[in-house]
Design goal:
single chain, about 170 residues, alpha+beta, Alpha-D-Glucose-1,6-Bisphosphate, Chain A, domain 4, 2 domains, seven-stranded antiparallel beta sheet, 5 helices, 7 strands, about 40% helix
């Protein structure tokens, strides 16, 4: 009986320590983050914007997407592979040829903002992207931090965009 009591106390202590660690982790992780990336693309600004705004073809070059549903010119939904919920996008600003912005949400716990700015270069353009997101809730914050590397995702997205634009530019 004494051993059972000790086991129950030890189990309760382990659960309390884990719960405390979870709360501390959630409180110490940032609720918001922002990343900037730059990529040089051997094409005109119009060609880059054409690929970015051609949402019907996203799944051809963004391999992490299952499908995209387009509501209208200013809003669409992307269905990432291995994601519990879709990402809902809306156009925030369209100031082509120099810049464009999108807002996005995933449920009520994750929201973000993408901004792309284009500057001409000798061989094409330089695209500077800023990806910012914020999370609501400790669990979402911990899950995003643990399982999703936004900076790596943004760099990969830009690299795939570059490859797509340059392949169409030939």
């Amino acid at each position: 009986m004494k051993i059972l009591k000790l086991l129950l106390i030890a189990t309760a202590l382990i659960v309390l320590i884990c719960a405390g660690a979870f709360i501390v982790a959630g409180l110490t992780l940032p609720a918001s983050q922002s990343f900037e990336n730059e990529v040089e693309i051997d094409a005109s600004a119009d060609k880059v914007w054409d690929v970015i705004t051609d949402k019907d073809r996203y799944v051809e070059w963004q391999t992490q997407l299952d499908k995209v549903e387009i509501a209208n010119d200013k809003s669409w939904t992307e269905y990432p592979k291995d994601s519990p919920e879709p990402l809902k996008f809306s156009l925030g600003a369209d100031e082509r040829p120099s810049r464009m912005e999108f807002h996005y949400t995933m449920g009520n716990s994750f929201s973000g903002h993408w901004k792309g700015e284009i500057a001409p270069t000798a061989s094409g353009v330089k695209l500077k992207t800023t990806d910012s997101y914020s999370t609501q809730g400790l669990l979402t914050r911990i899950l995003i931090y643990t399982f999703f590397d936004m900076e790596s995702f943004a760099k990969d997205w830009n690299a795939k965009l570059k490859a797509r634009v340059e392949s169409l530019n030939k």
